[in-house]
């Protein structure tokens, strides 16, 4: 028979072991984050990469245009300079002038001529030269850009008012500048047109230029007039200004109401236009 004391001791030990093996307690809350460490030292800059190759020119053709005033005493108003395809014409001899041509030829503002061109599907590029171009003076070079694909059907139009007139303008009407190579130059000599929108009275009240200004008129008020009082009412070659020269001699041509002198007369060519392809 086993010793009862030994049995009791064994039971007590087992009971203690069972009590010691209870469930784990709940996890406690996370402690606060520790302070951030100091930033490391920046590394040294790497070497510069090699330069890339120069890109090639885009698919554009670039042109410069220069205007020279060949008259003795007729300043030119700002010019409309337009590159376009062959389907567009700013005006046509023997037909009534557009509103843009009328405003430009009477008052010297080319903005509407450019707007009318922009409405055409043949329009490519245009600019307003800005400023007055004096007699016997060449303008700056004006740059225009068109798609290379359009260089084989390219036309140049230039319109500018002779400001000591009622409605005279000179320039080019869809001059052919197709298929120019880089470095090519084309020179055009221009005639002068009568817009047919204003009677050629040559009075101080109807011309915007300095000749009218010296006689107490001129300026914007003497420019564009919406009333068309030229009996012809079509664009045609200009026959020249009459002036007041010899106005008191019945046997000679002269206009007593004119504020223009002989120096304001003009011949053909009236201007020279040079276009150069630069790219």
Write a compact overview of the structure shown.
By secondary structure, the protein is α+β, with helices and mostly antiparallel strands. Helices cover 14% and strands 23% of the residues.
List the helices and strands and how they pair.
Layout: H1 4-20, E1 60-69, E2 80-84, H2 99-107, H3 111-118, E3 123-128, E4 137-138, E5 142-147, E6 155-161, E7 168-176, E8 185-190, E9 192-194, H4 210-214, E10 236-237, E11 271-277
Antiparallel strand pairs: 1-4, 1-5, 1-11, 2-3, 2-6, 6-7, 7-9, 8-11, 9-10
Helix pairs in contact: 2-3
Describe the structure using short key phrases.
11 strands; Immunoglobulin-like; 14% helix; single chain; alpha+beta; 279 residues
Q: Can you offer a commentary on this structure?
A:
- The chain has 279 residues and is of the alpha+beta class.
- It has one domain: F-spondin domain (Immunoglobulin-like), CATH 2.60.40.
- Helices cover 14% and strands 23% of the residues.
- It contains four helices and eleven strands; from the N terminus they run αββααβββββββαββ.
- The chain has helices at residues 4-20, 99-107, 111-118, 210-214; strands at 60-69, 80-84, 123-128, 137-138, 142-147, 155-161, 168-176, 185-190, 192-194, 236-237, 271-277.
- Residues 16-22 have low confidence and may be disordered.
